[in-house]
Amino acid sequence: MLLSWSIPPAATFALLVTALVYLRGWLLLRRAGVPFVPAWRAVSFMLGLLSLWVALASPLDTFSGFVLTAHMLQHMMLMMVAPPLTLLGAPLIPLVRGLPALAAREFARPFLNWRVAIRIGNALTQPLVALLLMGVVMFAWHTPRLYEVALASASWHEVEHACFFLASLVFWWPVVQPWPSRPQWPRWAMVPYLLIGDLQNTALSAILVFSDYVLYPSYSTVPRLFAFSALQDQAAAGAIMWVVGSLPFVVPAVVIAVECLQSGALRAPLMLAKRTSSAGKLLDSMQRVALGSGFLRRRLGGRIAEAVSFVLLFAAVGLSLASLASGAVDSDDAQVVRLRDHSRSCVATVLAAPGEFTTGASDFSVLVQDLSSRNVLTDAVVELHARSAGGSQSESVRASSKDSENKLLQSASINLPSEGDWTVEVVVAHGGTSSRFSLPVHVAKAEADFSWPWPYVILFGFSALLLLVYVLRHRGARGRTPDDTVRLAKADPSRAEARL
Length: 500
What we know:
This protein is α+β, with helices and mostly antiparallel strands and about 500 residues long. It has 19 helices and 9 strands. The protein has helices at about 10-30, 40-55, 60-65, 70-90, 90-100, 100-115, 115-125, 125-140, 145-150, 155-175, 190-210, 220, 230-245, 245-265, 265-300, 305-325, 455-475, 480-490, 495-500, and strands at about 335-340, 345-350, 355-360, 360-370, 380-390, 395-400, 410-415, 420-430, 435-445.
């Protein structure tokens, strides 16, 4: 079962592209002599992306629908491991620098210099706001109602994970204070800040540990993969979150407290002076990098070639990501138990989508466990046979874990072509024995269902937004003579630079 990895193609591709962009920017900054991106920062950023990928692809995600303890460990990686490691990589400048020149100049830099974006960023990373946001997101998603929604829907499960990760990035921002951001509170204030964050974590853990009933009913209905009950699983999840989950808050708080005691009150002005001088060095280094990239652009044929290459690269990456996202929709998380039965050798649990069956293809998943040990028999051979009430129609298909996002399950899609009563027979072969389980189903007529290709719609909308931003930024530059540009540069150098 520990080999039950489930690779999410869209998330894997997105994280890989992010890693490549960061590495490109980090290498360019290092070559330009920027001193604020040592190798350990790049290693930290890559470890952050790796821990995020492990949380989404490892057996923690596979077990999350069956074992609350695994789900809590997954949440801890998303909230307490991946965000601080990512921020320690000082990702802002390397990511911008790693983008294609046109994207950095026309979109990333104007957005980061936009006053509204700056105000929103400062407001979100204000420690009091970040602390409240973290608490609201963590407690809201762990209420039984929202937690059950996430368990029942793969899409909402992904939204839950995104909320945890983004809220945690905001929470850890004042603690890590990634370069080149500036702190809004004194450094010593991060000690009570982290301790209050640990208090929120402890409160949620205590609710799980001391509850005398199962908070999330889904864990009472799914098959148990281990010997302990759903209530014991809930208590274990709370205990791990209480003990292990406190370390990411307490250890940094102790380190910061020791640093503040050793540094004294005179360290802040000295650090400010160092940062001011470092900012000048950064500008010089970035200017050298820009000159080098300008030379390359001239060699490649100017900004027309730059624009064409950006459009082609954007289309290739965007279409690939949209294709992976649209094909990654899986119904494993949205299935419910339709049958649980046992033979002399094994226990079979049949899952399918909630609601009535309709004509056409229906997805079934089967979990096969040993009768005595409850170990999952991933090597069992599972076949599905559907037969209409009169026996005039029949369909057969073999299930496989390759077709399932959750590798503990063996899934297959079987066609139910007509309305009426059907019987789905599940045949399980393992260890020289064969077991049969029957599931009666009623099939209704399927209604027309139209679903939007949301990944492509989002890609089209984002592309239109980028085009609109580009047009608005350059609407006054058309028809301007070189003399006009010189006069504009003398009057407002920053505006002239933005127009170029």
